[in-house]
Specification:
heterodimer; A: about 400 residues; Alpha-Beta Plaits; Sulfite Reductase Hemoprotein, domain 1; 3 domains; five-stranded mixed beta sheet; 16 helices; about 35% helix; about 15% strand; B: about 80 residues; Arc Repressor Mutant, subunit A; 2 strands; globular
Amino acid sequence: MGKKHQTPLLDELKKGKWISFVREIERAAEKSERTEDLLGQVEESYRDKVNHWKHGGMAGVKGYGAGMVGRFSEFPEKYPGIKECHSMRIIPSAGFFYNSDFLRKLADISEKHAGGLLNFHGATGNIQILGMSQAEAEDAFQAIAELGFDLGGSGSDLRTPSCCAGQARCEFANYDTMKICHDLTEEYQDELHRPAFNYKFKFKFSGCANDCVASAARSDLAFIGTWKDKIKINQGEVKNYVQKFNVQKYVLDKCPTKCMWFEGDNLVIDDENCVKCMHCINEMPKALRAGDEKGASILIGAKAPLVTGPRMGMMLVPFYDINEDAKNDYEQLKALISNMWEFWDEFGVSRERIGELIGRVGLNTFLEGIGLEPMPEMVEHPRSNPFIKFTEEGEE
Amino acid sequence: MTDETKKKVEDKIVGLVKEYAGKKRFKPIDIVKEMEKEFASEGLTKDDIKGALKEIMDDEKLVYGYAGGSFLTLPENK
């Protein structure tokens, strides 16, 4: 079969030894005329240096306000196959574990109802079937539901929660990321499927400060595994590492709070000043282990750029005892989340993320609003404004 | 919430979206706040109103649209 559209610019992107997205789209296009049209439009985008998609509009399945992301071609007559080219988002299993049978069936659904292209995974963590039309959405949704999966979040709702592989695959995980991710996904089904917020809201769960799901940068509420007690040291293994590489240079000197040093041959850690960044544990995993009193720090307000630029999460709860709260069906956490959403509902404006709201009204107001006491760990950096007015009581 | 009150809330929500069709896009949260005020005397909670909204969407009297943020709108065939 000859090429429907000439794509000299895209052909450049097939050169080289690495996997090319163009080659993958071409493979899908061998079976799908609509995906051939996709190649034609993407070629035009490279030529014109702008993309030719129209965003938003009406795309969805009955009863749900989320799960489909509308994309319409700017040139529907030239590329009829992608007149509608929506993405269908599917909630992944916690930790992204799938069996091969599911993947085969999902591929079949994608070929039958869309252009045979899948995205593993989107930025939020969803599986995405690309290139679906509204007419096929309902049947595709039913087929996905028969596999035991459901649609994910989109629009102004709770986006699909995501987590790292946690205790299933990683020795550094300080809590069961997959359990809490699964439990909260089940708990907040309405918030996921029916957009009712001012804008999107994301949960991400990382088992340790390595933060493999980038929760500190990409989620409105980030759960990062940590511990309260002392780092466990195996001095014998420390000595082995000293034989292998320059521990002073690559571990101690890179400690952000300089809380480690050698006394003779023994490594000493001032745990009071340790910020649990994981660097030393990553470098010497046989010698150092996290303590036993494990839980998570909760950070709030991160987001990628859009309205007011990127923000990193700020500390909200320095130590949350997940394991204890899980015994009570996350009673404490759910109360905290409910208070935050109430405050955001009440005072947030359209398309304002919760971190932007906190930036606008101030952390003090937000904490008062949600009934949380201020703590020193919430201070992001020392005050830079020297003009401080004190009241008679000595308070600012 | 009685069935009668629920019907009143549903009619009010659909009526509001119809009345402002093409003029204003209502976010679901705007509707919830509006109905909380409207039915304050009947003691309706936010959850009651969200429940009514859920039934409206299930019955496809209204659908969700998206333009930067989600909003409620009439189905295309209405």
